[in-house]
Amino acid sequence: MVRIKTIDNTVVPYMSAINLKFKIEKKWFSNQFFVTLNSWNAQYHAILGYDFLQRNKVVIDTVNKQLLVGNQKFDFEENSPTNICSETTDCDISESDKNKKESFEQINNNFLTKGDVSEETFHALNVKIANNITVQPFSAEIINLKVPKNISKNKDIIFIPKKNKLGYLINESLNVPTNANLFHTIIENNTNKVIHVRKNTIMGKLSTFDVNDIMSPSESEIYQINNLNLNEIHKMRRDELLKSDFKLGHLNDKYKKEMQDLLLKNYKVFSKSYKTLGETSAVIPEFSLLHNFPLQTKPYSIPLMAKKYAQQEINNLLEAGIIEPSSSSYCFPVIFIKKKQNPNDSNSEPKFRMVVDYRLLNSITETFKICLPKISEIIKNIAGRKIYCVLDLKSAFFQIKLRDEDKRKLAFCTEMGNFQPSRLPFGSKNSTSYFHTLISKCLNGITGKNVQFFLDDIIIAADSLCELKVTLQTVFDRLIKFNLTLDPSKLQLCKPKITYLGFDLNANGFSPSEQNVNKVTNFPRPKNLKQVQMFLGMLNYFRGLIYDYAGIVEPLVKLTKKNTPFVWSVECENAFNTVQEIILKKPTLKNFDPNLPISLITDASKIAICGILLQKKDNVFYPLEFFSRKLTPAECKYPSIRRELLAIYASVKHFHDQLLGENFELLTDAKPLTEYQSLDKKPEIVARWLLYLGTFSFTPTHIPGSLNPADFLSRVVEENSLNVNNITLFQPNDKLSMQNISIEQKQDAILSKIMNDLSVNKQCKQYFLDVNSGLLMIKNAHKNKKKIVNRIVIPKSLIKVCIETAHAPHFGVKKTFEFIRHKYQWKGMYLDTKNFCEHCEKCLENKPKAKLTQTQMIPKRNLAPGQCIAIDVVGKLPRSTDNKNFILTIIDHYSRYLEAYPLQNITSRTIINCLNKYFANFGLPKFLITDNATNFISNEMVEFLDRLNIQHRKSSIYYPMANGLLERAHRTMKESLASMCESTFQWSEKLLFFKLYYNNSIHSVTKFAPAEIFFGRKQNLPLDSFFEPITVENESKYLKNIRNNMCSIRNEFAKNEEQYFINNAPHIKGRKVPNFNLGDKVFVKNFSHPHVFQEKYKGPFEIIKILRNNNYVIKSLKDNKTMKLNVSKIFKQEQPRPNLRN
């Protein structure tokens, strides 16, 4: 609320404010005028205040009776105040002054005087109320009044209320009608009776108002000052609040209704706009400056995309009275920062945050120091609860009032003008300190295990909905008492898991949030000292969650020492990968439970000491916090037994708050305590350590020194998926672009000679110059010698680059060679490829040595592509960056086309979802082959396949080779991923890359790429990115070629498969496969890892069914259970032979 005082300190009552342009002589001015109430009898129709004189640099020359504005001079008016002159007839007024007076009085009569209004002067029309309204005693309501149809739209109108006998009060107002021919005003009931006003009651009269009558034709802006009282604001808050403002969709109907009732009941604590924003003077900020010399800066330019938002934001703040026009000598620029856009709402307009650049002011502002709470202490106090709520204050800083003398110091400038805040702005030096003081005062006495806060985020925790409701009501009552409001759209209500201050909180404890985990795990390998410092600074936020943190990162810390050259060693790489993997697993810590016993584990190494505070529940140790620090150079020289004692001392000192007064168990190698306590003469430092430890009550428990304390930690926490966005996954090598190959060909001595010969029409075997690209190419016959293909000749300088690109998935020599010769050629190409692949270090590290023997192979003769598929699961794998642990693989038996999906879990529901994705892309098969895992034979899976009429075939148990196509693909996939991944958690990203190359590589059995059989064409690889797109000139000819190509593939496919089995027949290992008959008695291998005295086989069983591919169905003779097994897992019980001698 703005207060206006006269020179004698009289407060001037007013209704609203209006920006008007007026003219003095020939010069136009713009100023804000306050429209006063009729009860205040002013002597003048308009008064210009000190702010106008100061802003326009007006000089009052009392000697010459002139007003000096710049280079112009205006004479004083000699007449008396208009109201006095109208009553005094003997005033000595000149003729020109009389004309000016009469003109001004006419304006006054037409627009401002209430009592002298007539229909003839105004051409006034009656105004009726649009609906029935009831006004309670001593309250106010917003009413809608109807504008007569004969008044043109978008024209300003003046409303003059009618005198009434009911006792309600309506003030005159200047309005702009809405599109519905309505305008709004406020009706006040100051009586002790209820007032009812019926629809279409005449409430007053109105007339149109043309600003051009008294102003320049430029548009004027009207800013309504928020001068409502608190009761009126509470009513506005109630009217604007809706049930849909609260996000409660995750609750059932009963709990949802209970929470909605509680929230709507406390409507006073919610605000959705600046007009209804809370306002408090419980804390009054003071901005004391080191000097009083004004500071001014030029305004920053506003980006085009932010100008519309900037204008709207300034208008909203002005309308709510949060800022006001300023003529202050202080002036600071404004910047508009783009807010993060909701990824699910890409069509929404961008939003910005208005921030004043107060850096210059902050440099001369005295600091108001406070101590902010430790984030770690807040998290420890609030974690481990079942239900959470987070409350966010609406425009938090704007809810604190400023002193009048401080407003001018915080003034800011924009392209729309100069303004100053009436509330605490964001960006000033002490804003955070004053706001924290306010919330501390507001929530004093109720913070603890249920309520915590950090700046404008209040978190509430509870173990039941009833407890949560009670705590919420307590917090709401405090906020209402201090007139602070919350943003309903940002509330997080009744969540079992919530992210707060960078941590995920749930009933199990707290762990790093997914966003922070993603930042750490995706941090690139540091290349300089600054990047190492950035990485360590990021990790330091989580050091309390990492066991032996100081010891792990010690190689990285060494790089930050002064005068140390930056050398990224193997130790640095191992430390970098280790700490990323630890954070990727999201270590979870529980909060302290005073009802459980406490344990402390300590450990020491040559470079660091560490300790773990634990509590034991159900015979399981749960970590509460980790402590570690690096040893000083002097401490590194201690003998090992003293370092162990130092670890005990430092850990107990670190966990002083939790351990003092508690009887805890010290799990450590007890030698340091017993050894030093038995000495008569102890070193002074050791004596001080033992003296300090003597103040604590603990029971030493011996654990072997060889036992790693980390073995006590076996916590596993579920997390949600992280987004993986590797934009360089399929990026080709720019060195293989057409332009670069052309340059390198011209620089190659041999190739440049061939190109020169071709340019003078000399014949050079099969070489030719491409007309479009100008590249040197060669004609070669296809492998069936029925088709001529053109390949680019690769210069010697690009041979290694070409092989590296083709070998990216780390396939074998043949597949890598096929990738290359599809488009490129050079002399000795196969030998170069063979040498490169055989000496690839990644392949040597991750691929086993080839075996010459093979198991018996059975040809695959299926109906057609897509008719029969096999599925299986690979894992459990190391957790990936997007929080996946398994891979679901699907292979088409005819074409060998492979699809793979990374999964977080392998429940039947998850697998069904993946199958639905596969069916949507490739259609429904007739047969589905799986093993006998529970997730494949569950009732849910059986019902799913039955509904789709898919025959489910299950392979023999304990015989992976029954699903040999997938098992061989798994081996290739694991070798490729292991070779491509620099860190184990990158495998899900590289899986996409592997699938593309695998499905477009030549299969050793069919001699065709799986994609070529499945789709009739190969898919483009990164190697093909620089070639011109293929166009279809004749569609019928193109389709005919595809049909002919498919027929050719089908014929050659069958021949290649048969020839493969013939060629590999000598390598099939093993003895002759035995044949069994129905009714034969057999024994089965025991698959349960028997100990030395346990039977190796189980039985007897009876063969009750003979299946294909040497599989049998057998039945136990003991309990009649049946199972399907391969012949390799059973042997026949021989029948006793008669003794011929008897």
From TrEMBL:
It comes from the Eukaryota. Residues 861-1018 form the Integrase catalytic domain. It holds the Pfam family rve. InterPro entries: DNA/RNA_pol_sf, Integrase_cat-core, Integrase_H2C2, Peptidase_aspartic_dom_sf, Retrovirus_Pol_polyprotein, Rev_trsase/Diguanyl_cyclase, RNaseH-like_sf, RNaseH_sf. One of its GO terms (molecular function) is nucleic acid binding. Its EC number is 2.7.7.49. The keyword Mitochondrion does not apply. GO terms for biological process: DNA integration. PROSITE patterns: INTEGRASE (PS50994), RT_POL (PS50878). Keywords: Endonuclease, Hydrolase, Multifunctional enzyme, Nuclease, Nucleotidyltransferase, Transferase. It is an enzyme of class 2 (transferase). One of its GO terms (cellular component) is DNA polymerase complex. Residues 319-505 form the Reverse transcriptase domain. Gene3D superfamilies: 1.10.340.70, 3.30.70.270, Acid Proteases, HIV Type 1 Reverse Transcriptase, subunit A, domain 1, Ribonuclease H-like superfamily/Ribonuclease H. PANTHER family: PROTEIN CBG26694 (PTHR37984), PROTEIN NYNRIN-LIKE (PTHR37984:SF5). This is RNA-directed DNA polymerase. It comes from Araneus ventricosus.
